[in-house]
């Protein structure tokens, strides 16, 4: 991830400039250490029967990339290592079994650790030349090649930390430090943005970009006293796990960012409908009593012929229930807890900016609760008078849509004056529940799926009041409905904000 990697590189850059730790007067001399390394290298070359390495090109102050503390020194990588190139193994030399020496290639170094996976190429019976390219614990291994379309591997370096020896493939460079105490500090320097920037600009630019050995050996290394090297490594090792944890979170957030605005909104609504977003309180009122009041009121309105008696709705069977809800909630069909009334057609030429307020099909696709700014012209007062009206806290739903998601999209009308309702709309009246809770349920993925299953049509789809009335809704106590709405109104805007990021 970009930010976590930026943090890592910022920490390492501060470290190799002497800004991450304190310089102490008691630290030993870097000049003395460099002389000791020079002597160690002579002994190492003689012991391992190595040829003298080519002389390093000189550098001057103009080549120094940044300032370092006065008790530090600049040196070249070739001053403190001995190197060895890999062997050009043939495919016929290698097998994929579990026996023999593993062959280390550039892909083994991609995570800055040497990773040997199942099926790694191996050499079971290496000859003397192959064995001369043997890798041992604490060797530094650098990738010298990459494809031009993917320069990432170029210069990547890992420490071989395994006890079992391995063999070095061509285009991977083995570097042995003359002073082992420097190993992890040098590892961080080589994998710093500073080092890799220089490395990436020194590839040869061919289809397969290659680092030249002399460029690697001539790279400038900021060298602190050995004691401060250890302090730097300790500090980096303290910080990096925290950045690793941050990276995990960053990856999760990045994945959520792609799915969050839609999926998280669905997840929030689903959690709300299952009683998982809020606490159920014993002090809450009874849902059964609430439903009893609603049924009694509906029966009285039917008896007074203020509303029509709808078609009988089927009893709710156990297999009808789509998910679990708390014990003090109830499943109920939409038609049992409210009255559905279809609107009247209002033509476009009857609409103006002032006059008798109305709502038409097109005004629904804005928000979960709304007021409307169109009106029926005073010229058509008779149309307004005959139209079915929408009142405060009524819920509006579309009966027609261009796709199944648009079908029965629900909004709560929160205005104070009554408004005329156009065609292809239905009004759902229930003044004993929180209308926004019901709106959130009707706009959930669960309800959208149920409405889609009931709708008819190909390009333009339709649903009837009779079908809407059959939809099952999870009903909590009124107090919890209010808590759920409060919680959702705080959280749902965050989904929309993420969508704009």
What are the key terms here?
14 helices; five-stranded mixed beta sheet; 501 residues; alpha+beta
Structural commentary:
There is one protein chain. With 501 residues, this protein is of the alpha+beta class. It contains 14 helices and 26 strands. Helix 1 packs antiparallel against helix 8 and helix 8 packs across helix 14. The radius of gyration is 37 Å and the shape is elongated. The two termini are 17 Å apart.
Structural class: alpha+beta
Q: Portion of residues in helices?
A: 25-40%
Give a short account of the largest sheet: 5 strands, mixed
- Backbone shape: elongated
Beta-strand content bin = 15-25%
How many β-strand runs? 26
N- to C-terminal distance:
17 Å
Which sequence of strands runs across the widest sheet?
Answer: 14-24-20-22-17
Mean pLDDT: 85
Rounded to an integer, what's the Rg over CA atoms? 37 Å
Low-pLDDT ranges:
none
DSSP helical segment count:
14
Describe the protein's topology.
Elements: H1 2-16, H2 30-47, E1 73-76, H3 77-80, E2 81-85, E3 101-104, E4 122-123, H4 128-131, E5 134-135, E6 140-143, E7 145-147, E8 157-159, E9 166-168, E10 172-177, H5 183-190, H6 193-200, E11 208-210, H7 213-218, E12 220-223, H8 226-273, H9 287-303, E13 330-333, E14 339-342, E15 351-352, E16 356-359, E17 369-370, E18 375-376, H10 381-386, E19 389-390, E20 395-398, E21 400-401, E22 410-413, E23 419-421, E24 425-429, H11 435-442, H12 445-454, E25 461-462, H13 465-468, E26 472-475, H14 478-500
Parallel strand pairs: 3-9, 16-23, 17-22
Antiparallel strand pairs: 1-12, 2-10, 3-4, 5-9, 6-8, 6-10, 7-11, 13-26, 14-24, 15-18, 16-18, 19-23, 20-22, 20-24, 21-25
Helix pairs in contact: 1-8, 8-14
């Amino acid at each position: 991830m970009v930010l976590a990697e930026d943090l890592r590189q910022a920490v390492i850059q501060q470290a190799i400039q002497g800004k991450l730790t304190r310089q102490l007067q008691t630290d030993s001399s870097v000049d003395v250490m460099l002389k000791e390394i020079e002597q160690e290298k002579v002994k190492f070359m003689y012991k391992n029967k190595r040829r003298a390495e080519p002389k390093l090109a000189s550098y001057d102050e103009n080549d120094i990339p940044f300032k370092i503390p006065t008790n530090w020194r600049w040196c070249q990588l070739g001053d403190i290592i001995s190197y060895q190139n890999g062997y050009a193994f043939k495919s016929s030399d290698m097998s994929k079994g579990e026996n023999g020496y593993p062959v280390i290639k550039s892909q083994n170094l991609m995570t800055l650790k040497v990773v040997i996976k199942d099926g790694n190429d191996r050499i079971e019976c290496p000859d003397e030349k192959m064995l001369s390219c043997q890798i041992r614990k604490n060797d530094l291994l650098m990738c010298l090649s990459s494809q031009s379309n993917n320069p990432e591997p170029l210069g990547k370096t890992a420490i071989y930390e395994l006890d079992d020896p391995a063999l070095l493939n061509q285009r991977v460079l083995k570097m042995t430090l003359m002073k082992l105490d420097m190993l992890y500090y040098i590892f961080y320097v080589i994998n710093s943005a500073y080092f890799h920037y220089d490395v990436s600009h020194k590839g040869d630019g061919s289809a397969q970009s290659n680092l030249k050995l002399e460029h690697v050996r001539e790279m400038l290394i900021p060298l602190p006293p050995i004691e401060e090297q250890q302090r730097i490594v300790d500090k980096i090792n303290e910080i990096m796990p925290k950045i690793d944890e941050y990276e995990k979170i960053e990856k999760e957030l990045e994945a959520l960012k792609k799915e969050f605005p839609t999926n998280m909104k669905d997840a929030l609504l689903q959690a709300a409908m299952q009683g998982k977003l809020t606490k159920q309180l014993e002090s809450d009122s009874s849902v059964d009593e609430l439903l009893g009041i609603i049924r009694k009121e509906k029966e009285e309105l039917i008896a007074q012929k203020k509303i029509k008696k709808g078609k009988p709705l089927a009893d709710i069977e156990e297999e009808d229930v789509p998910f679990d809800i708390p014990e003090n909630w109830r499943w109920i069909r939409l038609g049992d807890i409210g009255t559905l009334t279809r609107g009247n057609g209002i033509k476009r030429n009857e609409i103006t900016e002032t006059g008798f307020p109305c709502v038409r099909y097109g005004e629904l696709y804005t928000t979960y609760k709304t007021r409307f700014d169109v009106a029926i012209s005073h010229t058509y007062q008779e149309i307004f008078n005959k139209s079915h009206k929408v009142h405060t806290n009524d819920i509006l739903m579309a009966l027609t849509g261009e796709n199944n998601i648009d079908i029965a999209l629900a909004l709560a009308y929160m205005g104070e004056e009554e408004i005329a309702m156009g065609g292809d709309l239905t009004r759902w009246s229930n003044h004993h529940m929180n209308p926004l809770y019901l709106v959130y349920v009707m706009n959930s993925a669960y309800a959208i799926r149920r409405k889609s299953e009931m709708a008819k049509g190909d390009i333009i789809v339709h649903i009837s009041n009779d079908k809407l009335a059959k939809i099952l809704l999870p009903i909590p106590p009124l107090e919890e409905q209010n808590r759920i709405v409060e919680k959702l109104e705080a959280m749902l805007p965050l989904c929309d904000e993420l969508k704009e990021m």
